[in-house]
């Protein structure tokens, strides 16, 4: 990308009064980097750590505050790095420890934090621990994995108990890929001789080892962790060990707390509230992001008359977000991740609706997270080939589209050597083409992020008041309140003009309101007006197709 990033375009910084006595992640926009497809600098066709460092100025321009990196550890890459073979070493394809330290240092210089992916439920079959654990005869690693006697595995729903053909004559558990073996932190379903308690001396060594791994990366300057399938540590196919989850994850939480505010984010779809309220996580991804995407799909071009129900998404997220522990707990809303369809898919690849999806992610009472490329409207490329056990997920793992040039600016390697082929449409859906272009997905996203940063009411601890959400009505509007900062978000999810009257009394805490426009969708004229001769709380909004507003309201 050849264009310089102008300082005047950088999002406004928050004042100190806005962040007093708050965990930093309440005021942070998160961004997921899938390293192998982000930026290649050495010409091997695979993204690397120097590539992330190279693009930090862009990420600062976008306005993100924290990066979550998918696994970067030594691995045979049977599952794209989620099969770890050494927790303390960087995979050579991504670079060296020196590259990692430089990336962290340069990110921190730009006030961007770095979170790593903690894959603590299982390891690669090639991990030295498993090589020792499968040996005949007892050794310090014998109980570190889920083992059972031949033909006598615990009652199991899902997963596979595989016979060990090299060494001990037992069976071991794998829950995902056959090359990902499940670690045992003392699951109560196992016979005692295989280590069914965290107090077992051999099992306790594994707990301490993982605490040591956590400390190792925190000592290297890491600011927190996204934790892969954390509930599976206790929620095995052979039974649910709730106590084990609390013991293990609270021990990791204790390690993190020694370094200050170092959040743990759970990828937990079955027990999200338990993850935050009981296991010790600060945040958890919410599955209601898919409710939002279904709402978007109801209004995409060609879908016919709007047949969505904003209440489903609105009520579900409100119930979940309202149940997390106060002060430092939150849910995480996301545009997509490395396993799910891009937000543009729900929008029918229609950019104005994609922007509305990003707006909805950014303005709920949850921490917002953007997946790489969603900010330029990248599509789910269903022609992407199978790669590293992607099972259809490769469609969201194609290289970031930086320019309209060779390989979309991702790599100078020959096209056939790229980690995945560049997605179609890269000549217009790329960073260089959209930077500075009014109405582009990139610039609309930046505009939304800048507004979010300036208004704490839009942050996860702000209160949400639903103003308009009705079945088959494309207008969805809600107020956000945090102290004296009060905002309204109003969107039209359809391709036809639509309007609504909003009762803002509860949000304004007043019988009379003043309204000021903050930001609006490209081409959306500011039209809200207070009804009544001179005062009142009823606000009329008219929105063009896929139009939106963020408004500021004040009572008087």
Set down the secondary structure blueprint.
Elements: E1 30-33, H1 49-54, H2 56-62, E2 66-69, E3 73-74, E4 86-90, H3 97-109, E5 113-118, E6 122-124, H4 128-133, E7 147-148, E8 160-163, E9 171-174, E10 180-182, H5 201-219, E11 224-227, E12 235-236, E13 239-240, H6 242-257, E14 264-266, H7 272-279, E15 283-285, H8 289-297, H9 310-321, E16 330-334, H10 343-346, H11 351-362, E17 367-371, H12 431-434, H13 441-454, E18 463-468, E19 475-482, E20 485-492, E21 498-503, H14 505-508, E22 513-520, E23 529-530, E24 538-543, E25 548-555
Parallel strand pairs: 1-2, 1-17, 2-5, 5-11, 11-14, 14-15, 15-16, 16-17
Antiparallel strand pairs: 3-4, 6-10, 7-9, 8-9, 12-13, 18-19, 19-20, 20-25, 21-24, 22-25, 23-24
């Amino acid at each position: 990308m050849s264009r310089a990033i102008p300082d005047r375009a950088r999002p406004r910084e928050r004042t100190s009064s806005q962040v007093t006595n708050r965990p930093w992640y309440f005021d942070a926009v998160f961004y997921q980097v899938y390293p192998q497809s982000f930026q290649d600098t050495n010409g091997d066709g695979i993204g690397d750590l120097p590539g992330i460092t190279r693009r930090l100025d862009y990420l600062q321009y976008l306005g993100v505050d924290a990066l979550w990196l998918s696994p970067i550890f030594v691995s045979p890459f049977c599952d794209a790095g989620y099969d770890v073979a050494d927790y303390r070493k960087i995979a050579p394809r991504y670079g060296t420890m020196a590259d990692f330290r430089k990336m962290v240092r340069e990110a921190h210089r730009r006030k961007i934090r770095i979170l790593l992916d903690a894959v603590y439920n299982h390891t690669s079959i090639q991990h030295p621990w498993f090589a020792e654990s499968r040996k005949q005869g007892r050794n310090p690693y014998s109980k570190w994995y889920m083992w059972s006697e031949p033909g006598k595995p615990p009652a199991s729903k899902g997963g596979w108990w595989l016979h060990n053909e090299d060494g001990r004559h037992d069976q071991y558990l794998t829950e995902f890929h056959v090359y990902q073996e499940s670690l045992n932190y003392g699951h109560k379903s196992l016979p005692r001789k295989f280590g069914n308690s965290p107090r077992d001396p051999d099992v306790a060594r594994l707990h301490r080892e993982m605490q040591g791994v956590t400390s190792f990366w925190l000592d290297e300057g890491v600011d927190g962790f996204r934790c892969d399938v954390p509930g599976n540590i206790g929620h095995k196919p052979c039974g649910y060990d709730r106590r084990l989850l609390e013991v293990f994850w609270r021990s990791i939480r204790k390690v993190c707390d020694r370094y200050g505010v170092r959040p743990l984010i759970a990828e937990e779809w079955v027990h999200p509230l338990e993850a935050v309220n009981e296991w010790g996580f600060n945040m958890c991804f919410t599955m209601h992001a898919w409710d939002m995407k279904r709402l978007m799909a109801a209004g995409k071009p060609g879908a016919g008359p709007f047949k969505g129900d904003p209440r489903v998404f609105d009520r579900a997220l409100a119930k979940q977000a309202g149940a997390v522990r106060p002060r430092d707990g939150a849910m995480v809303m996301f545009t997509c991740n490395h396993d799910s369809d891009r937000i543009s898919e729900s929008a029918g690849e229609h950019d104005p609706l994609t922007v509305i999806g990003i707006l909805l992610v950014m303005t709920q009472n949850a921490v917002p997270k953007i997946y790489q490329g969603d900010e330029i409207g990248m599509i789910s490329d269903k022609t992407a080939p199978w790669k590293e056990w992607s099972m259809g997920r490769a469609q969201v793992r194609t290289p970031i589209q930086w320019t309209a040039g060779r390989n979309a600016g991702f790599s100078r390697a020959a096209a056939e050597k790229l980690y995945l082929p560049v997605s179609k449409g890269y000549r217009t859906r790329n960073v260089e083409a959209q930077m500075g272009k009014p109405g582009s997905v990139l610039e609309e996203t930046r505009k939304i992020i800048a507004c979010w940063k300036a208004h704490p009411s839009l942050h996860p601890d702000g209160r949400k008041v639903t103003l308009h959400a009705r079945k088959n009505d494309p207008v969805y509007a809600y107020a956000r309140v945090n102290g004296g900062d009060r905002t309204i978000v109003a969107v039209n999810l359809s391709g036809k003009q639509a309007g609504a009257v909003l009762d803002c009394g509860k949000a304004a805490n007043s019988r009379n309101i003043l309204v000021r426009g903050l930001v609006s969708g490209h081409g959306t004229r500011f039209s809200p007006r207070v009804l009544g001769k001179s005062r009142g709380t009823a606000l009329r909004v008219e929105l063009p197709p896929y139009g939106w507003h963020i408004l500021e309201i004040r009572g008087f």
